[in-house]
Design goal:
The chain is built from two helices and 21 strands. By secondary structure, it is mainly beta. It is elongated.
């Protein structure tokens, strides 16, 4: 920040094209003067830096973004991970609008709200209002990319113009954390418009008529895309604290979608139990994020995850635990 304050940010970076792949699209940091963030090592301090990206591509060409999810955070002696996705506001693609690609999460539990006159908590009031149950919230609006994975996301029919790129997963959290950028789709001549304005001309001139004077062309010296955003240090630090808090994560691969339905059932509360220590871990929930688990309909061949709060690191590597979800029991699992 200008005053020297360091605020945790996530962000997109431009990678190299895959071997043998050519493209007319370009990807650059929107702020060319922003330093590239470098994580700390055992011998060097972290170098802070952040900038949105700007992708430019001609009209009439498909855009494929190979999105690598590196949202992995050290939490005590373990690691927490977060899924993500991409939307381009005003463009269709990347899994947006495909119901099978959408993932959901349970809404926060508001059953403990108390009030004698209004449906929100008031100090000293008694419970008189029971909030109605809420349906599941969308977790990812487009194709979700699992932590550590790389997924090709395609927009086949781009419309010319300038568009906002942003995370499609928990946008109220991931977008303020910095997961946004700009897409510029440059125009070309069409049958209806056989010519385009020359470079450096925003609006071509208009010749005089018998009743109207000539209008000169509107020209410019440079074209500069701008992204307006805000950084809330309090929220960003709270999110970073949440994802860096020690927990226990379970990942499972589906080979029988019908039998796996119980694992993703939003009505069932998962629990991880260490019978020897008498410890029960539950899936945590944040107000704006919901439960830290995936609850979409399981698909054979895909992997899913859920995270258990492990405050105090009570469950450790090598311990034997049981996972219970409704009638489902997976006993004597070894923590790795």
């Amino acid at each position: 920040m200008p005053d020297g304050t360091v605020v945790p940010m996530w962000g997109y970076t431009c990678g190299a094209l895959a071997t043998g792949v050519t493209s007319t699209a370009t990807c650059l940091a929107l702020n060319p003067n922003a330093p590239v963030a470098v994580p700390a090592t055992a011998t060097t301090a972290a170098v802070p830096g952040w900038s949105p990206v700007v992708i430019t591509i001609p009209t009439g060409q498909a855009l494929t973004i190979n999105l690598t999810n590196s949202l992995s955070f050290t939490a005590g002696t373990g690691t927490n991970t977060v899924p993500t996705s991409i939307m381009i506001v005003g463009q269709v693609g990347g899994g947006l609008g495909v119901l099978a690609q959408r993932t959901t999460t349970l809404s926060p539990d508001h059953s403990n709200l108390v009030s004698s006159t209004v449906p929100w908590p008031v100090a000293g009031s008694t419970k008189a209002f029971t909030p109605p149950p809420q349906g599941a919230r969308v977790q990812s609006f487009s194709t979700e990319v699992a932590p550590g994975a790389t997924t090709a996301l395609t927009w086949a029919a781009l419309r010319p113009g300038t568009y906002l790129i942003e995370s499609g997963t928990h946008p109220s959290i991931q977008v303020p954390m910095g997961l946004y950028g700009i897409l510029v789709v440059t125009p070309t001549a069409t049958a209806a418009c056989t010519t385009t304005a020359p470079a450096g001309t925003a609006y071509p001139g208009v010749l005089a008529t018998a009743t109207t004077p000539a209008v000169p062309a509107v020209t410019y010296n440079a074209e500069l895309p701008l992204a307006f955003g805000e950084i809330d240090p309090v929220q960003n630090k709270s999110v970073q604290t949440a994802v860096s808090t020690s927990g226990f994560s379970e990942t499972y691969h589906v080979i029988d979608a019908d039998k796996a339905k119980t694992l993703n059932d939003k009505q069932l509360e998962p629990a991880l139990i260490d019978p020897e220590k008498g410890v029960k871990l539950v899936v945590p929930s944040l107000e704006k994020i919901g439960l830290f688990r995936q609850m979409s309909t399981p698909v054979e061949g895909k992997s899913y995850w859920m995270a258990f709060s492990n405050s105090g690191r009570l469950v450790k590597r090598g311990d034997r635990v049981n996972v219970v979800i409704g009638q489902f029991h997976a006993d004597n699992l070894v923590v790795e």
